[in-house]
Design goal:
alpha/beta, two-stranded antiparallel ribbon, Rossmann fold, 8 helices, single chain, about 20% strand
Amino acid sequence: MGSGVRGYPRSSPNPAAGVAVFDFDGTLIRGDSLPKFLDQVTGPLRTRRAMVAAVWGALTGPAAGADFAGSVKARLLRATLAGVAVDDAYAAARRLKARLIWRQPQREALLAHAAAGQRVVVASGALDIYLPILLEGLPVDDILATPMDISAGHLTGRLAADNCVRTAKANRVRAYLAAHAPTGPTWGYGNRPSDLPMLALVDHPSII
C-alpha cells in the first residue's frame, strides 16, 4: 500500500481487553462495496457488462457449480482490474468513500468498542486495495481483506491469496485471535449466512 492509504492502526490497545470483529459489506455499510468500487474504476456500463459475462462464464465454464460466487468474483476482477494502476485504484476508492452509506448502529458499536479499549478488526471479502481507504478516520486496528496481486505498480486482476469470505474468513479470524491470545471477551458482527462461520468463533455474535 502507498502512503496515506492506511488509516490504521491507532495506539495499540491491549487484546486482553477484548476483540471486536466486524464484517464490512452489509454490516458497517449498506450494500456491497465491490461493484461500487468497480463503477469508480471502469464506469458503470463496463462494470455491468463484465458482471453479466462473469456470471455467464461461471455458469457455463469448466468449473461450473464449484464456488459459483467465487468464480464470478474472480472473473469479474480479471475483466475490470487487470492492468489498472494502483494509484488509479486508490483514487477510485477515495471517490467511493464519499458515497458510502454507513449503518449507524454498527458504526456506533465499532466506536464504542474502540472507546472501551478493545481491539477493533474488520474482516471482509472487500479488496485490500480499497478497504483501508474506506475505513480511514475510524479507530480500526487491523483489516483482514481479500488481497489483490500487484506487479510493477499495476493490478493483475488476480487474487494474491484466498477470497476472504465464509470459511476462509473464519480461518483468518481464527488465526488472528490465536496470534493475539489471550484476547479476553470477543464480539462479532456480520450477516447471515455468509458470516456464520466467523460468528461461531466469538463469545458475543450479532447477526445484522
